[in-house]
Design a protein that fits this description.
Layout (H helix, E strand, L loop, with lengths): L2 H27 L8 H15 L11 E2 L3 E2 L1 H10 L9 H6 L2 E3 L9 E5 L6 E11 L2 E8 L3 E6 L10 E6 L4
Antiparallel strand pairs: 1-2, 3-8, 4-5, 4-8, 5-6, 6-7
């Protein structure tokens, strides 16, 4: 093959590669920022399923494993570590380590944080199981009941204290 023909073939190949990149780039740019892919949804569901399997574990202050018990942030730390997502085992720090989102947009696998007053510091964290017309259901470790799942929207205790939501997976 002569040199001019090889250069021409190389240019055609480069053009095809770049045009595919351009189409892919357009597709990515036109995907809404808050949309989730099938693999992202599967990961979120796997995280929640793993968390729900810890129900019944007892509460232990600063606890980080199911054998000895969990506190709230030790629980979320443990769950996400199983999926190679690093979180500090302190609820105030966890809120700073993820991307804040509107509470109404919280989805399966996101975290919600609680304060005793709007200006107060974070004192509790929970993992979102679902967020639908019936409210926000979470799985979390409580000092009185250990790891449980409950609808915080209908809870007279938790409803007034939930303040922020964060996306851990898409920081």
């Amino acid at each position: 093959m002569n040199l001019n023909l090889r250069i021409f073939a190389g240019c055609i190949f480069l053009f095809l590669v770049l045009s595919q990149c351009s189409e892919l780039n357009t597709l990515v740019k036109n995907t809404p920022a808050n949309s989730t892919t099938r693999s992202d949804n599967q990961l979120r569901n796997n995280i929640v399923e793993f968390a729900l399997n810890q129900k019944g574990a007892r509460y232990k202050y600063a606890g980080r494993n199911p054998k000895t018990g969990f506190d709230c942030s030790g629980f979320t730390h443990y769950v996400f570590a199983e999926f190679n997502v690093n979180l500090t085992p302190v609820s105030r720090a966890q809120e700073a380590e993820c991307r804040k989102i509107p509470l109404k947009n919280a989805q399966t696998g996101d975290l919600v944080f609680f304060r005793k007053s709007k200006a107060g510091s974070v004192f509790h964290v929970a993992l979102v199981v679902s967020n639908d017309a019936s409210g926000i259901t979470v799985v979390h470790s409580t000092s009185s009941r250990g790891v449980i799942s409950e609808n915080i929207t209908t809870s007279s205790y938790w409803r007034s204290k939930v303040t922020t939501a964060c996306d851990v997976l898409n920081k």
